[in-house]
Write a structure and sequence with these properties.
The complex is a heterodimer of chains A (about 120) and B (about 110). Chain A has about 120 residues and is mainly β. Chain A has no helices and eleven strands. The chains are: A mainly beta (about 120), B mainly beta (about 110).
């Protein structure tokens, strides 16, 4: 059973470009979370999605950032017009979240975004 | 919303000594408390977790305690080894409808040989 997959692992963008980060959850998981980790800091929640639905986007900046989790395919975190402050590691995590189970989250390897 | 505070931010111990990391949370509805270990450049990995209906849980050299009344929980690592050196994060979440996890800011543990 493959774990959570993220690609690309490293992404370099110039200021003003767009960044697209992809996350494929573990098989059977239908819930995805995106977190941002600035250098030497903790994980900050950005958005929680289920298939075709955004459940909680309270941690995501209102402008330039968007996320989706379509019926088919990976979840995508999109950052438009990137700025240097967007440079960070972006982790996604997935869970199956059955009613009887606690939401243990399994993390992907992360995408390290560098904005030049 | 939930607020999780973690202390200390850095911790240095001699090999073989014990290490204790403490976290407090604010939302009394939180009922799931995982601990993650993150090595440099790698993903966070779950090392132990505790549910709110349990006060203590052990797994070999690692133990976690939970005090629901005081809203704090702690990670205890005994007989530390150099490979325990990493950043450790605590988190708190509410099980209902798969709520997001709120993480502490992390503790950088260094075990000196």
């Amino acid at each position: 059973n493959a774990g959570v997959m993220q690609n690309p692992r490293h992404l370099v963008r110039r200021r003003g470009q767009e960044a697209r980060l992809r996350c494929s959850p573990m098989k059977g998981h239908s819930h995805v979370y995106w977190y941002r980790q600035l250098p030497e800091e903790g994980l900050k929640f950005m958005v929680y999605l289920q298939k075709e639905n955004i459940i909680d986007e309270s941690g995501m900046p209102k402008e330039r950032f968007s996320a989706e989790f379509p019926k088919e395919g990976p979840s995508i975190l999109r950052i438009q017009q990137v700025v240097r402050g967007d440079s960070a590691a972006y982790f996604c995590a997935s869970t199956d979240n059955r009613v009887i189970s606690y939401n243990e989250q399994f993390f992907g390897p992360g995408t390290r975004l560098t904005v030049l | 919303g939930e607020n999780v505070e973690q202390h200390p931010s850095t911790l240095s111990v001699q090999e073989g000594d014990s290490a204790v990391i403490k976290c407090t949370y604010s939302d009394s509805a939180s009922n799931y408390f995982p601990w993650y270990k993150q090595e440099l450049g790698k993903r966070p990995q779950l090392i132990i977790d505790i549910r709110s209906n349990v006060g203590e849980k052990k797994d070999q050299r690692i133990a976690v305690t939970l005090n629901k009344t005081a809203k704090h929980f702690s990670l205890h690592i005994t007989e530390t080894q150099p490979e325990d050196s990493a950043v450790y994060f605590c988190a708190a979440s509410i099980n209902t409808n798969a709520g997001k996890s709120t993480f502490g800011d992390g503790t950088t543990l260094t075990v000196k040989p």
